[in-house]
Amino acid sequence: MFEPLVLTYLGGVYSDLVALCWLRCDAAAELARAHPSLAPTAAQFIDSHFALIRHGTSAPAAPISYRLFPERQPTLAETMYKKWSADVTRAISDVRCTNVSAVARVLQKGAPHVGSVRYIGAQLQRACSAPSEAPDHALLRDILRCCALRTWAVRPAVTPRVRYQAWSETPSAQYARCAAYLKSADVQYCIAEFIRGVSTMDIGIAYLLRHRRPFPNVLTMTALERAAGPGPSAWPRHGFARCVDPSGKLFAELQPTASGTPPSAKRVKAAYLRHKTPGLVASVRAGSHKAITICAGPLSAAESAHQLTALRRFYALVCIECGTWRTRPRGGHKNGPAAGVLIDMSQSRVTCSGCGSASIYRVLVNGYQIGHRGLWGALCSGCGDFNTVRQQHGAFSYCAPCHEAAATESTRGTCDCGAIATTSHLAAAGPRFVVAHTCAAHAARALD
Predict the structure, then answer these.
(1) CA 209 to centroid of chain Cα atoms
(2) Which has more pLDDT, 227 or 97?
(3) Domain parsing of the chain, residue ranges
């Protein structure tokens, strides 16, 4: 029942295929009810059949499209991650809330230590009631859809008809059914759940979310920087742009009022002088350091171990004065400032080609992904190329050529002799047929 549908379907009309899809969905729901821990997997399995069900119901006489088969459908979580992960990274990285898009401002409503969320409920209503191509409205519609389907819930609903209704209904109908009664605080929780769900699919975003410094308000932060004055900041020599959090007592006194108004500059300076220590001064200065826009996080344990043992060591150069990676990954922004360093051979001096600073450090990239300006760069686990365009295959991520080679090799399988298969055919295995793989040398014998 849970075998790939493309292998078990023997032909027919759309009505038979739709009925078979519903049978598979009902079987997955029964399995999830018997084993609740399988509910998230069962929900994804059920959702993968809906595109084929909707097409077969609306156009029963149309030719069967194998592109709509469940095995070809990405999950909703994968779609949301591919579509919004860069904006989530930008939203939780920019602690000062500067130079962010409308999408990032919406996402920051669900980030820790958020400010006002007064109008987010009305914004959700506008996004669902009037179709708009604005990115922030598209984001809110996707967030509502994920909440309706409970995409990242531990125990999502597994009733196929209920999930199909939530999957296929329009944004306006979904808002009327699920969100018309929600308050702004409830919508804020939905956004926070969306950010948490995306962070479970990217260790770098999870790292950023976990280590985000709790500056309560941009005006409070600006007043603290003015009180601390110019001087050396606490750029960490071990790690990636992460500094020690300031004293919790200081920010306990500098919370906004009930109406959301931040404390005055005079009150901020008085509290700062009461709690002033060398560590606090350096940490406050680090909040305005440009290098704070740089971030990084480890890859999965398996991929990290593979890159450290199987690939050559690759180091990226970073300037901690202007806060930029001087080693640009392949596929990065081409319209941004030029990357690179200037090397003075006579004085054995390396300086940043952007700001002229000599504060250049090298960072090992093997086992890590590094982010800057909304893009994540890492090494290809096949050839070791440093790039931003990577595709997951199994436990590792590859560049486009290596991913195609790995996918071809795994799809073709291997012959009984151990060689890479060149052809595949159906072979009898008892009462059933299975897909057999053969190399060029044994292909003719297998067909006999």
Answers:
(1) 12
(2) 227
(3) 5-72, 98-202, 218-288, 293-393, 413-447
